[in-house]
Amino acid sequence: MGLPLPPPEVEEETRRAFAKTPLCPSCLGRLFAKVDSGLTNRERGRRVLASLGLEAAVACWLCQGLMEEIPAFADLVAAALEGWDFDSFLVGSRVDPDVLNREEILWTELGLDTYEPIKAEINREVGKLLEARLGQTVDFQRPTITAVIDTMMDHVDLQVAPLYLYGRYRKLAPMPQTKWPCPDCRGAGCEACDHRGTLYETSVEEVIAAAVMPQVEGEDHTFHGMGREDIDARMLGRGRPFVLEIKRPRRRTLDYEAVALEIEPEGQVSVSEMCPSSREEVVAIKALRSEKSYAVRVRLGSPTSLAKLQEAVDALKGKEIVQRTPARVSHRRADRERVKLVVDAEVLQAHGTEVELRIRAEAGTYIKELVHGDDGRTRPSLAALLETEAQVERLDVLEIHDEGAHGQGLQGSKAPDATEVPETTSG
Ligand SMILES: [Zn+2]
Ligand SMILES: [Zn+2]
């Protein structure tokens, strides 16, 4: 292997550049980075100088000593990363605009297309030093932490990837799924909200986050549920899938059993099946449309015979119904008709005007409207079939039939911004 001597035309350019603008070996070698590979810019620069019989500049016109600071930048990043869990990282940099400006002047002047930008060299060389030091690898695709060096201020900013946790929750007491800021004070705290800043005392999100956050030392969280039930509806069965997104976590591992045990004694919420998740899964559970089973307690306008009730329920079972956008949501949804399948329906209890049903229906079915008919906007309805009024007194979600959806084909698909929250139907 011979020395990578610069070709004659490069030799002349080098002499010209060097006469006008003395460069350090790194800045010189970087001008010809694409001429050969397998050398660092510094090594290449030294060999070029040697082959031309030139001395390295004491003060570099371009970087003014910046390239000598690479080991110091690696120290800075290592110090900034202390106390953070990560299994891959990436180095970025913000370089003095004056340096970038001089760099461009030189490229233009020499008319070269073999150069590499100074930022690329800083990022790569600092990254190499850190790989050796930390025993971790640089990851361009999906780093846990990106350390951005400000070379003027000698400061490092850490961009930390969120941590995603999957689980299913059961809810036994009335509360919203997510934190609900007080509309009067918008979270600042006022008399109306008892200085909590939230409309409700707690939420599923807050109960779960209270157990998770101390373990991962995150700064904030966002809750992504697979749909949501009404505030006063219980969520039973195996529970509802969710992903908790934790912003800027210092720790990335947690004791799931401890989290579940800490939540359980409150008695209002419980969690199960907790495991690591991803941004892709957030998108997937938002998009998944599953059948659901409900327990519906209904009060009828007048008593009916069990035979007639059974007949009405049988008339809904396995049938497609037509639902116009319910009056209660028509101010925020387009008014249109949807055909929904009532997969199954059965009478659980009936005492006079008090009736309890189990209904399994296609995703997006408006259950309350299926019962009371919404002034003929849902056809048929339990009320119409019984020829009496019917009001839902209690609506609980018994089961979400999302069998096997978790963890299926979720890796590697491209995900849009995970903070977007699509609208959900009731239940
Ligand atoms: Zn230099
Ligand atoms: Zn308030």
β-strand number: 14
Through-space gap between termini: 71 Å
Q: Per CATH, which architecture of the largest domain?
A: 2-Layer Sandwich
Element-level helix/strand string: HHHHEHHEEEEHEEHEHEHEEEHEHE
* Spatial strand order of the main sheet: 13-10-11-12-9-14
Give a structural overview.
The chain is an alpha+beta fold and 427 residues long. It folds into 3 domains: 153 residues, THUMP fold; 125 residues, Alpha-Beta Plaits (2-Layer Sandwich), CATH 3.30.70; 111 residues, Alpha-Beta Plaits, CATH 3.30.70.3190. The protein has 12 helices and 14 strands. The strands form 3 sheets. Strands 13-10-11-12-9-14 form a 6-stranded antiparallel sheet. A hairpin with a 4-residue loop joins strand 3 and strand 4. The termini are far apart. The C terminus is likely disordered. The structure holds zinc ion (ZN) (2 copies). One zinc ion binds next to helix 2.
Give the gist of this structure.
The protein is α+β, with helices and mostly antiparallel strands and 427 residues long. It has 3 domains: 8-160, THUMP superfamily (THUMP fold, 2-Layer Sandwich), CATH 3.30.2300; 163-287, Alpha-Beta Plaits (2-Layer Sandwich), CATH 3.30.70; 291-401, 2-Layer Sandwich (Alpha-Beta Plaits), CATH 3.30.70.3190. Helices cover 30% and strands 26% of the residues.
